[in-house]
Amino acid sequence: MLDRTLVLDRLSKRFGEVVALDAVSFDVRPGELFGFVGSNGAGKTTAMRIVLGVLAADSGEVRFDGRPVTYEMRTRIGYMPEERGLYPKMKVLDQLVYLAQLHGLAPNEAHRSAETWIARLGLAERRHDEVQKLSLGNQQRVQLAAALVHDPDVLVLDEPFSGLDPIAVDVMSQVLREKAATGVPVVFSSHQLDLVERLCDRVGIIRSGRMVAAGTVDELTEGAATQLTVTAPQAPPGWAAALPGVHVVSENGTSTVVELSPGADDQTVLEAALATGPVREFTRRRPPLTELFRNAVTQGSEQ
C-alpha cells in the first residue's frame, strides 16, 4: 500500500550569502490540510517552488508516495503561485481547458472538468470573459480552478486567500476541505492566521529559513502558560496588574486576559475579580495561533 504523503526532507537553499532554507523538513499527509506560515521572506515560497521543480534545492529531497518527486509526478500536483500566472487576454473557459490539456487530459475531459470547476467556483457568468476583465477576487477563483482542473494528487497553494472577500474565502475553504476529504494532501501558506487555525489539521511555522514548530494547534500550545479570560464589569483598569504571578496580556473594556506564572493560583485571580463586584466570565483560554506565531518569531529574533 502506497503512502500518499508529501514529504519535504531537509531542504536547503542559498541565494548567494542569503540562506533561504536551512534543512527544512515537514510532511503533509493524505487528506490533510497543512498551514505553512511565516513572515515575509521566511522561505515559504522557496520551499513550494522546490516542490514544484521551479527551483532546485542545494540539498535535501521532496518525496511523494515514498519516492523522490519526478517530472512526471509534478504534473499531478496542483499549484497556485503567489504571483498569479494566468494569461490575461485569454478567456476563462479556454484557459482552463488549455491548462487541463497541458496536464494530459483529453480535449473532451478537459472541457468537462473546466466547466465543472467554473460552476463550482461561481464563475459561470464569466466563463467567456477575458481574465484581465475580471475582478481580482474572480481572477483568484480562476487561478484556483487552474490548480484543480486536472484532478491533482497533491495541492500546493501559495497565499490562496490573499485579497478575497469573506464569501470567496468561504467558497475556497469549502473546496479545499472537499479536496482533502478525497485523500489529497493540501498545503497552503497564508498570513491570515485565524483562517489557518480554523481550517488546518496541522500547522508549520518557518522563521528565517528554519522550521521552528509543526503540529496541531493543540500540540503547539501544549505547555504554554495558563491564560484566563475574566469579565468583571465593575473592575477598574489595571485591577490584576499587582497580583503575584500574574501578567496582564490584554484589557478590552470589562474583559481582561491574564497569564499565570508556574505555580500561580487561578483562585487568587478569581477572588481579586470578585472583590470588585460581579464576575460574568472566568474561563481558561487557549492562546490563538497569532500569539504562537508572534512568540516564535520574537524568540528567534532575540536569540
From TrEMBL:
Record's keyword terms, sorted: ATP-binding, Nucleotide-binding, Transport
Domain of life (superkingdom): Bacteria
Keyword Transport carried by entry: yes
SUPFAM superfamilies: P-loop containing nucleoside triphosphate hydrolases
Presence of the UniProt keyword Zinc-finger in the record: no
GO molecular function, one term: ATP binding
InterPro entries in the record: AAA+_ATPase, ABC_transporter-like_ATP-bd, ABC_transporter-like_CS, DrrA1/2-like_C, P-loop_NTPase
Family: Belongs to the ABC transporter superfamily.
This protein's name: ABC transporter ATP-binding protein
Organism for this UniProt entry: Prauserella muralis
